Amino acid sequence: MASRGRKGISLPGTIDNGNEGILARVSNTVSQSPIVHRSKQAASDAAYVTKKLLKSTGRAAWIAGTAFLILVVPLIIEMDREQQMNELEMQQASLLGTPSVAPQK
């Protein structure tokens, strides 16, 4: 039996290698196309911007959380103490029988 030579169609911009199948050649051509290159570059740029955004958002969250702990928490504690003192004074006034004064708001 005589062996028959295989003749295939060579795609533009590819190296004709007789051992590669058509699927491998098409895949190689597609992966080297400018559209794929631009898509990969766009994805890389988007990932970079997302990373920077998350980093700056984390910094802003840290600053906001620290400012809250330093400024707002002591205020809340002091307001709670003041409320407890007012309630205690009203309780003592009711026990002693003095007329109670309406709490100021």
Automatic annotation (TrEMBL):
GO biological process, one term: intracellular protein transport
UniProt xrefs under InterPro entries: Tom22 (IPR005683), Tom22_pln (IPR017411)
TM stretches of this protein: 60-77
Membrane topology: Single-pass membrane protein
Compartment list: Mitochondrion outer membrane
Protein transport is among the record's keywords: yes
Main location: mitochondrion
Record GO cellular component, one term: mitochondrial outer membrane
Pfam families from the UniProt entry: Tom22
Keywords: Membrane, Mitochondrion, Mitochondrion outer membrane, Protein transport, Receptor, Translocation, Transmembrane, Transmembrane helix, Transport
Domain of life: Eukaryota
UniProt similarity note: Belongs to the Tom22 family.
Protein's name according to its UniProt entry: Uncharacterized protein
Source species: Tetracentron sinense
